[in-house]
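Usage

Read records sequentially. Each one opens with the input sequence:
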Amino acid sequence: QVQLVESGGGLVQPGGSLRLSCAASGTIVRFGAMGWYRQAVGKQRELVAIISSGGRSNYADSVKGRFTISRGDAKNTVFLQMNSLNSEDTAVYYCGAGLSSDLRYWGQGTQVTVAS
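and closes with the structure output:
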């Protein structure tokens, strides 16, 4: 059974940084894509960033230039470096993975709160 486990969330002041990590287990297949979505209170889940196994990445306009997604050397790990955080970034962040950009597997989420 595939499991994704996120870590690295927490409380940070505006302008600060956090690094989220996600590791998948339960499969020998290298996922074609891994990514991060987020859901704020009262809002729909939205794409933050996604990266292919070849390293091609896409970002939501709201995070371009501030967030960087990367895949780790270990198979099926993905990171999200978040800089210049603001209150609009407050949300539960979910790691997703799939053979394609249609992500099928999800972690349980990690809370990111940006507040002074």
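Summary fields computed downstream for this record:
- The chain has a mean pLDDT of 95.
- The first strand starts at residue 3 and ends at 7.
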